[in-house]
Amino acid sequence: MLTSNDSIKIRIKLVAAMAVICFCLLAVKLYQVQIERHEELYEKAKKQYTAVKTTHGKRGEIFDIQGNLLVGNIPCADIIADPQITGDEPACSKAARIFANHLDMSYSEAYSRLAQKFRVRKLPDGKTEKVKNRFVVIAGNVPFQEAEDLKKVIKINKLKGIVFTDTYRRFYPKSTLLSNILGFTMPDQGKDVPVIGVEKTFDKQMESSDATERFERARDGIPLSYGLQEADKVKNGFNIYLTISEPLQSILEEELDALVAKWRPKAAYAVMVDPGTGNVMAIAQRPSFNPNDRKSMSPDNWRIRITEDVFEPGSTMKPVAISGALDYGVINPNTMFNCENGSWTYAGKVLRDSHRMATIPVYEVVQKSSNIGTAKIAIMMGEQRLHLVLRKFGFGASTGIPVTPETKGIFRPLNKWDPLSISRFPIGQGIGVSPIQLVRAYCALADKGNLRKIRLVDRIENTETGVVIKKSIEEPFQVFNNPATPEKIVNMMSLVTKKGGTAVGAAIPGFNVAGKTGTSQKFINGQYSHANFFSSFIGFVPAENPAFVLLVTVDEPRGSYYGGAVAAPYFKNISLRALRYLDVKPDPKLLEEVEKEKNSKNNDTPIRD
């Protein structure tokens, strides 16, 4: 029988044993928590008292060749909330009313975001779990001053868990100017996603990186002045300097708008390039768009027609083909051709001229734009040589302009030519070119046969180091074998804008203007239309030492359709203003000739083309 002392001893032993067991269990638990699960639990705990702030880098900006800003960044803010800190229903309701009063959002939209305390997270095994929501975007890209004013209101009302993150919004200060080439970006989850143009082509160079700052915070979300402080370094994107000159671009677009107002076309293009470098000095199209006004934008307006669209060049192709015949020695400027009084049948098809012409020299074939004379010159040259000439001038190939997409045009390989091709390709029928391809070919005519890549970017600037990388000008390809050819073809092209030519409307007092008109029927439903045309003039001035090559092309003008009547006068207007800006002086002798011409009687009937 146990005594009372024995009972007490047993109880003590049991208590001691239980204490040892509990201690052992506690030790195991502490080992698991502090050793085995230390990192896991530490990270969870740290999330309760640390916060992350993201600072966005600046996307690289775009400038013209003189450093005028074309695309920039406006400081703004993203407003972020932590629903675990924003408070209960009355607190969220109060904050939602403030956001609705100061931002472009409704009360219900703001409240639903602030009150979203939990979210569903998908696990690796496919299951889901409900977790605390620590991050919601209330509003993005809030203008800087609006954000600053809202910060004050939030502070006065003692709202908790609201963070303002500095960021930038893409801005196009020149509105529609050069918009198709510049392109635009769309905001997507804090990133600028490029859609078209320079913005897209040079996205990798202009792209910025974000910096992440981690800091300890109090329960209300306010950063503490002590404790954990970690930060990455933000990286800004590179700046792009284009070959474009903003003053010339403004001139070109003003005149293009005037053209559109008068002729009400489906579309219009104008391109100005320095033939000695391949630099695009100005480039525009209509229709266009304002990248700052996204509500009015449509894909048909913002696609880059100058590199994408294909049209039959018509008579603007003639100087290219004829220059090849000159270079091969098949003809000279005075070689005579019978133009059959305006109608001639070849390969079973009738070819016509707009005016009846009998036997005329090659220089008049160019000046008066004879289809028949040009076709006969090409036939004399032969298919292989003509094919090679057109290839040499870059037709059927990309131009090098750094925007996408770019068409290579329509140019059949020699083995797919039919009997009619030799008579139609040299007059610009059956061959498709883009506006920029045609300009490139004329740059070769203007620059003594030097075919260059089209350049749009002059230099790239590293904004972190200040280092500027100049884009090199590649060596040109020489299209001519005979050094006398360039002067011969340019002299003949200069007659086009003189008395008796098809583009007297492009003549500029005091300057020799070399160029060519083009009026091409559109190919619709398997046949050439008699109602829809492309009207063009392309040329360069001064003819002897060109400051630029300029193309003006009008798609389906209303009221008239001849290139000499529709496009040539606007070539003249743009050129006159551009020459003044570039300080290119007129030739006094040529000015005297103009005065003499004014005083003489001129009964010539204008040649249309």
Structure description:
This protein has 609 residues and is of the alpha+beta class. It has two domains: 51-102 and 136-242, Alpha-Beta Complex (Penicillin-binding protein 2a (Domain 2)), CATH 3.90.1310.10; 246-289 and 308-599, DD-peptidase/beta-lactamase superfamily (Beta-lactamase, 3-Layer(aba) Sandwich), CATH 3.40.710. The protein is built from 21 helices and 25 strands. Strands 2, 3, 6, 7, 12, 20 and 21 form a seven-stranded mixed sheet that branches. A hairpin with a 5-residue loop joins strand 2 (62-63) and strand 3 (69-81). Helix 3 packs across helix 4 (107-114) and helix 12 packs antiparallel against helix 18. The longest helix has 33 residues, at 4-36. The radius of gyration is 36 Å and the shape is elongated. The relative contact order is 0.10.
Name some characteristics of this structure.
single chain, 609 residues, alpha+beta, Penicillin-binding protein 2a (Domain 2), Beta-lactamase, 2 domains, seven-stranded mixed sheet, five-stranded antiparallel sheet, 35% helix, 24% strand
